[in-house]
Amino acid sequence: MRSRFDWPLILAILALAAISLSVIFSIDRQLATNQLIFWLLGLSLFWVVSRAIVQLWQKLAIPAYLATIISLVLVFLIGEEIRGALRWIDLGIFRFQPSEIAKLTTIVILSTFYLKKTAGEFPNIVTSLIIIAPIFLLIFRQPDIGSALSIIAIWAGISYVAKINKKTALTLFLATLIILPLIFNFIAPYQKQRLTAFINPREDPLGSGYNIIQSKIAVGSGLLLGRGLGRGSQSQLNFLPEAESDFIFAAIVEELGLLGGGTVVLIFIFILLRIHAALENKDSFAQLLATGTLALLTYQIMVNIGMNLGLIPVTGITLPLVSYGGSSLITTLVLLGIVSLPQR
Question: pTM, whole model, 2 decimals?
Answer without folding.
Answer: 0.91
